[in-house]
Design brief:
single chain; three-stranded parallel β-sheet; 3 strands; about 30% helix; globular
Length: about 150
Amino acid sequence: MSQFKPFFTQVQSHYDLSDDFFLLFLDPSMTYSCAYFQREDMTLQQAQRAKIDLSLGKCDLQPGMTLLDIGCGWGSTMLRAHEKYDVNVIGLTLSDNQYQTRHRTPARSAGDADRPGPPAGLGGVRRAGGPAPASPTGPGWTVSSADGRC
């Protein structure tokens, strides 16, 4: 069984590049993962929103629930979850740059001027000392629903 080792320095050197660099190839939501092009005429921004909506739709989110977004990046999934499902969100990131950018950017949509942004706690997460859990079902790991959908 292999042991996971923290590579904090390598993660920092990758994810803490400037936002200007990432904006060269990401959509305005700064979603840093694959997109879901349902139609050929979709823009990258539309395809990223479609991917997020598809993923969140599988979570059976209900108002008042809390969504934990591990590796939240700039927070696009958290913002969408709060906006569409009225859930609380907690985001975890190793990137100081992504954390700082999220906190400098208003956490609301353009049509939400009177509504507060999502209650999100963003922060760097590292496993300090000791061996890492052998699997996501081992000690130290939990899921928010019995079937582990979200």
